[in-house]
Amino acid sequence: MNRSPLLKISIRYGLVAGLLTFILLVVLYYIGTHPLLIAPYLDFRILLFGIFIFFALKEVRDYYQHGELYFWQGMIGAGIVVLLADVIASIGVTIFGSIETEFIASYVKEMIQYLNTFSKEDIERIGKEVFERNLEQLPTTNISVLAVTYFVQGLSIGFFVSIILSVILRRQPKN
User: Fold this and answer.
1) In a 10 Å sphere around its CB, with 0-12 CB exposed, 13-18 middle and 19+ buried, how is residue 90 labelled?
2) What's the rounded Cα separation, in Å, for the pair 83 and 94?
3) What is the pTM of this model?
């Protein structure tokens, strides 16, 4: 079976990105920063996805497609990289959270501390009922909820990075 270079290269980069994402997540946890409490706009996955998507699309464009890459090809390749990386990292979070018992407990503790720093104006903006309900439900958080949240955040981050890099790296044939 002769697979498309776009698919083959995207899968390779996605697998490596997923493994590296999981490793960085574990390292961050053990150096004292809970990785699930990092704001999405400061998340290390922005840079990580950007690097892996860039090199995957550049390799496809320059070595297999004679310098041409359409936007849709970039989005497909980038989507594969992000999806694979996200699936691997989320499965890793699930396994790690099941093994490391303090992972969930530290998340709940730190999140409660963070939520208690909200001002009255912030609480009113969110809605007092919503804020209190979220605060009450926090102790019942389990690893599945955290893994799904991490997955969805990763897809959101990856989607925006994919659009930007697909536009930057696209090249169409000159007529």
Assistant:
1) buried
2) 16
3) 0.90
